């Protein structure tokens, strides 16, 4: 699968240069850079933000080191969690195609004052490898439950 033109020309969507040495020191187990993705936010409530449904495209990277899971979009860390963090089980993972991977979570577990579901969808030829590795590390299989759906049921 070809990398995005912006990545090939300008490095947009790559691992940020400031943290690359740290990640290499930790030992990169699995990585893909310059991949297209979509951030989908459902029923998000946070400081100064309210979204019922919002979708944004991005170029980014997804990495697993011996110590952490990291996902960046346009050079900004979006997911950065240690593999020994107990909240790792609160992150949901699903493979939606041979080259599609979705990582979702309830925002309240990771950002104080926030609630709603955030889902990062990646288009990577390594989707199957990431799926197997991340499930073995303790991520939950499926999609993060929407809080408002649960409140209506109970």
H/E element string? HHEEEEEEEHEH
CATH class: Mainly Beta
- The total of helices stands at 4
Strand numbers in spatial order across the main sheet? 4-3-2-1-7-6-5-8
CATH fold name: PH-domain like
Q: Beta-strand percentage? A: over 45%
- In whole angstroms, how far apart are the ends? 45 Å
Topology of helices and strands:
Blueprint: H1 5-10, H2 20-26, E1 28-46, E2 49-65, E3 68-73, E4 76-82, E5 91-97, E6 100-106, E7 115-123, H3 127-137, E8 140-141, H4 147-153
Parallel strand pairs: 5-8
Antiparallel strand pairs: 1-2, 1-7, 2-3, 3-4, 5-6, 6-7
Q: Could you walk me through the main structural features you see in this protein, from its secondary elements to its overall organization?
A:
By secondary structure, the chain is of the alpha+beta class. The protein has a single domain, classed as Pleckstrin-homology domain (PH domain)/Phosphotyrosine-binding domain (PTB) (PH-domain like), CATH 2.30.29.30. Helices cover 20% and strands 48% of the residues. It has an 8-stranded mixed β-sheet with strand order 4-3-2-1-7-6-5-8. The model is unreliable at 149-154 (pLDDT under 50).
């Amino acid at each position: 699968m070809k990398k995005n033109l912006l990545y090939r020309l300008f490095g947009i969507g790559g691992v940020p240069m400031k943290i690359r040495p740290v990640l290499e020191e930790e030992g990169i187990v699995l990585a893909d850079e310059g991949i297209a993705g979509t951030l989908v936010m459902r029923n998000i409530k946070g400081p100064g933000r309210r979204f019922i449904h919002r979708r944004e495209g991005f170029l980014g990277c997804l990495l697993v080191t011996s110590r952490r899971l990291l996902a960046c979009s346009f050079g900004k860390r979006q997911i950065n969690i240690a593999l020994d963090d107990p909240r790792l089980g609160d992150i949901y993972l699903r493979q939606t195609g041979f080259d599609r991977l979705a990582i979702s979570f309830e925002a309240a577990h990771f950002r104080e004052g926030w609630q709603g579901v955030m889902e990062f969808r990646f288009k990577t030829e390594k989707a199957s490898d990431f799926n197997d590795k991340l499930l073995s590390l303790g991520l939950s299989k499926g999609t993060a439950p929407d809080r408002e759906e649960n409140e209506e049921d109970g």
